[in-house]
Amino acid sequence: VIKDCPYDGTLHHLFFGEEMSMAVRLYTHGYDFFSPAQSVCYHKWTRDHRPTIQEDTKVTSAPGEGSGSSKSELVVQEQRKKSIDVVKSQLQGMGPGLGTVRSTDDFASHLGVCFRNETISSGAECVGLSPDSFAPSIGADDSDGAPVDKEEIISLVSSFLNNL
């Protein structure tokens, strides 16, 4: 997978969007996506417990430049905009790194979206599957109304890893 679709090192300062870039590139190279019937891991979205890259790389104005946005901050904003433009181009079939096995139009159709018009088809939120096909999210109540247990999550992850 990494040989066919390496991470795109040109997507600077992009936090939301690199997943779509990778997904469309993998899809056009012929890869399919699957997810387990039960949630086996999660991503902690809150960042209160650690600094963000924006905090780590915050640059103040150079001496003599006065207050306001520094040149470095403006460069970061411009690089982020260029990165977003690359991903938008990829989703419309024109960006770098796309494969030739399947088209980006096939990708969009499979998802039930139109990237050019920025529209989502009715029912696309579940990709044509019943909502019951998806695992509950972490922190959601399970079928008996009890919160999801961390030990249960660890057990699910262990079971998943043992079956690889």
Please tell me about this protein's structure.
This protein is mainly alpha-helical and 164 residues long. The chain has helices at residues 18-28, 53-56, 71-91, 104-111, 150-162, and strands at 113-114, 119-120. Strand 1 and strand 2 (119-120) form a beta hairpin. The longest helix has 21 residues, at 71-91. The chain is globular, with a radius of gyration of 20 Å. The model has no long low-confidence stretch (mean pLDDT 76).
Number of strands: 2
Q: In percent terms, what proportion of residues is strand?
A: under 5%
Measured between the Cα atoms of the first and last residue, the distance is 17 Å
Nearest-integer average pLDDT: 76
Q: How would you write the strand order of the largest sheet? A: 1-2
Order of helices and strands: HHHHEEH
The secondary structure category is mainly alpha
Shape: globular
Largest sheet: 2 strands, antiparallel
Percent range of helical residues: 25-40%
Rg from Cα: 20 Å
Provide the descriptors you would attach to this structure in a database record.
164 residues, 35% helix, mainly alpha, globular, 5 helices, 2 strands, two-stranded antiparallel ribbon
Provide a compact summary of the structure.
35% of the residues lie in helices and 2% in strands. It is mostly helical. The protein has a two-stranded antiparallel ribbon.
Itemize the secondary structure elements and their pairings.
Elements: H1 18-28, H2 53-56, H3 71-91, H4 104-111, E1 113-114, E2 119-120, H5 150-162
Antiparallel strand pairs: 1-2
Helix pairs in contact: 1-3
